[in-house]
Amino acid sequence: MSRIGYHTAASGVMAFEMALDITANNLANVNTNGFKASRPSFADLIYTERNNRNEETQYGHGVRVQKTDMMFEQSQVRSTGGMLDFSALDEGFFAVQVPEGEITYTKDGAFYITQVEDGVWQLCNEYGAFVLDYEGNHITVPFDDVTNEMDTNYVKEMIGVYRFENPYGLDQVGDNYYVPNASSGPAIVDEEARKKQGWLEASSTNVANEMSKVIEYQRAFQLNINMVKTHDEMENIVNNLRN
Prior knowledge:
The protein has about 240 residues and is α+β, with helices and mostly antiparallel strands. The protein has helices spanning about 5-30, 150-160, 205-240; strands at about 40-45, 45-50, 60, 65-70, 75-80, 85-90, 95, 105, 110-115, 120-125, 130, 160-165, 170, 180, 190, 195, 200. Strands 7, 8, 11, 12 and 15 form a five-stranded antiparallel beta sheet that branches. A two-stranded antiparallel sheet has the order 1-4. The chain has a two-stranded antiparallel ribbon with strand order 2-3. β2 (about 45-50) and β3 form a beta hairpin. α1 (about 5-30) runs antiparallel to α3. It is elongated.
């Protein structure tokens, strides 16, 4: 008995399981600053001809998640009042250097200060990555000699904003970071990009849309599971008849 039906249904199980994982990750990051939701893109597997007399009769072999698209549309920005909170509007990104030394890019502009040496304070994020200026250097935060207060206006001017020719091609590497590749192109300094101080960009996850996707993917997953079970039962019947 042909196992095409079994493998076709099994491919659907794996594809919709991956789609559920992507949707679950979107929902888990609904409160993550600057998070950009992803969307699975499905593609048919190879088609074959099973009837030599009719070339138009073809049989599919299932489905797979071809790629995962990130949705980089501008999310809602919310006021925090924090002078070290920033939002890079439109398709702007902040550049940070992680402790391992690699330069990555993020939409999360919730920054802090950390003392590095000799009383020098530099700008960083919650993961300890240093925020970079337009020239790729760490940002040293100045303090007023009299009031001992930070010069937050200077900090705003120094924070670099970068863009990409194709931000949808960026690779996600965890901790809300992105790295460029051949598809996205290199980072481009954008001194004209808009950035707001005292505001943070919210997650782009739309709970209502994601929940509807959960229902859709769960039903498709269950349907394919039932197809696998049915095909297995049919094989058992055939084997019993042969015996």
